[in-house]
Fold this sequence. Notes:
The complex is a heterodimer of chains A (250) and B (266).
Chain A: E1 2-3, E2 6-7, H1 13-26, H2 36-47, H3 50-83, H4 85-100, H5 107-114, H6 118-142, H7 146-154, H8 159-170, H9 172-196, H10 201-211, H11 215-243
Antiparallel strand pairs in A: 1-2
Helix pairs in contact in A: 2-11, 3-4, 3-6, 3-9, 3-10, 4-6, 5-6, 6-9, 9-10, 9-11, 10-11
Chain B: E1 18-29, E2 32-43, E3 47-51, H1 58-66, E4 73-78, E5 81-82, E6 90-93, H2 105-115, H3 120-133, H4 149-162, E7 167-171, H5 179-195, E8 199-204, H6 207-213, E9 216-221, E10 226-231, H7 248-261
Helix pairs in contact in B: 2-3, 2-4, 3-4, 6-7
Amino acid sequence: MKVLGLRLPGMSSLILWGLLWEAVGQSGMSFFLPPLSSVIGTLIEIFGTPAFQKALSETARAFLAGVFFAIAIGIPVGILMGKNRLVDELLLPWVNIFLSAPLTALVPVLMVLFGFGMKSIIITTSLFGIWIIILNARAGVMQINRSLIDMALSFGASPWAAFSKIYFWAALPEILGGVRIGVIRAVKGVIIGQLLISIVGFGALFELYSANFLMSHFWAVLIVLFALAFSISELLAYLERRVSYYAAKR
Amino acid sequence: MGTHQTRVGGDPSDIPAAAVSARNISKTYGDVEALKNLTLEFPRGQLTSLLGPSGCGKTTLLKIIAGLLEPSSGEVEVNGIPVTGPGPDRAFVFQDFALLPWASVLRNVAFGLELRGIGRSEREGIAERYIRNVGLAGFEKSFPHELSGGMRQRVGLARALAVDSQVLLMDEPFSAVDEQTRRKFQEDLLGLVAEENKTFLFVTHSIEEAVYVSDQIAILLPRPSRVSEIIRPRGLRDKDVADIRRDPEYLDIVDQIWASLRFYVE
């Protein structure tokens, strides 16, 4: 964007919003919104503390494991649904229900089934991310050019070769789009899981800070989370652009 | 030129034995009859065109011969062996090229061999040879989206040639390329039929193209789909590629085919 003939770098608007936050915070309008500068100060202060490091590593482990299962199960299931009518008829209603269901309500059930530990948090994370990954992989496979499929068949491709050499790559732009949205949803999943199941990781920090009205601590953790989610999403968007050159011509 | 150079059209004793035979093929989609009791022989080492108005089932027939579609009844034999599915004795050239957009020209041309489990260095050696043959030397590392339509179809052709099948099935291969490229392709195809000892099945909707490239033209008519006529041009193969289009026989056959097709064109 250009303002007064000056070319502004991407996301310059964040500076404006940051200034607004600072101004509102300094004016003391609300106890719940400390100035941005003091939030950042707190962030630097708590970043090295064992409690924060522990929360970060616990959250990262639960998140990465949850996302791993969502991707490793979601993509093959989605491709299978796109290729096989029977599997599609069997699974599609469930995928659609879970995609729009308020999954938070399911968390207590998971607690009963899988206990109050890491396992339940990982499953919650996976459940938040997997459905959109399945749906996108399915859509990606269903739009594959008919003659590409005929080509695979006419040159005698085995089902595994057709899957790994053609279907996966032809559906890759949609698959990456699904993974990007799924990962963003998984961030929600891991925090909700930590808050509801066992008070660990960032969930524990949120609980601790908000219960004690440590607002700048609270906002500092929130900023870290937002920044993490945003960076992961941007990284995946970058990968998506890498394959977009062929997205239009398959 | 091949052995069929001296044949006289219309005399059955001069026609080579069939490499591909389709017998009593019917294909129905629900209530729609795409093909009805169609029988056709494709002589070995020659190019046979399937020509007809749209909806006459010529692509359906080609896909049945390829093993990509199953006929409702009837059977196809390739070298005396009944077709039950796709096989290494046939290679397909697609109207829309069907290239892998994420793979280089080299990998695309070698892809048929890759699927057949040929080792990397061997298949790339073969692919490089065919890339040169179709006139794409220097483009091995390019990607399909960097090539023109005509060059893409050369990649599709090289891929089909690289697997060295005896039968080449071409589904309107030149319809998606521009007129000038198409003419060059047609000339090159004549050279290919003469050099390679392969049987070519060629689907087209262009009368001129069919007469120009074919040893045998099967005219298919719709409703119900059937072979209405088989035309074997006599002397066009002896002519220089540049002279065929003003040969009286060429012009006569084009007129004759148009006369029988014109009633079926909406």
